[in-house]
Amino acid sequence: MATTFPGTAIIPTRNRPGALERTFSSLAAQSLQPQRVVVIDASDGDDTERLCAKISRREAEWMHVNFEMLWRRATT
C-alpha cells in the first residue's frame, strides 16, 4: 500500500484525457503519492472531468489510490 507525503500535485491540462489517465496510473503505482492531486482543466469536453470523478469515487481500477482528487475548470 502506498503512503502519502504532505504535498499537492497540480496538473494543468487541455483535451488530453488519455495522457492524463496514463499519468494517474503511473502515479497510483508509486509507493509514495502526494496527499492531493488538483487538475486544472481547459478541455472542450467533459472526458477529463469524468475521469477525475471516477478517481475521486475510487471506482474499479482506482480503488487503490491514496491521494485526494480535485478537478477544477480553468477560467482563462
Description:
This protein is an alpha/beta fold. Helices cover about 30% and strands about 35% of the residues. It is globular and about 35 Å long. The model has no long low-confidence stretch (mean pLDDT about 95).
Please render the helix and strand layout as text.
Elements: E1 3-13, H1 17-28, E2 32-41, H2 47-56, E3 68-73
Parallel strand pairs: 1-2, 2-3
Summarize the model shown.
By secondary structure, the chain is an alpha/beta fold. It is built from two helices and three strands, in the order βαβαβ.
* Total DSSP E strands: 3
Global outline: globular
Distance between the termini: 38 Å
Strand count, sense and barrel status of the largest sheet are: 3 strands, parallel
Structural class: alpha/beta
Radius of gyration: 12 Å
Strand/helix succession: EHEHE
Which spans of ≥5 residues are poorly predicted at pLDDT below 50? none
* Overall pLDDT level: 93
Number of helices: 2
Strand order of the largest sheet: 1-2-3
Query: Helicity, in percent?
Result: 25-40%
Strand percentage lies at 35-45%
Notable characteristics:
76 residues; alpha/beta; 3 strands
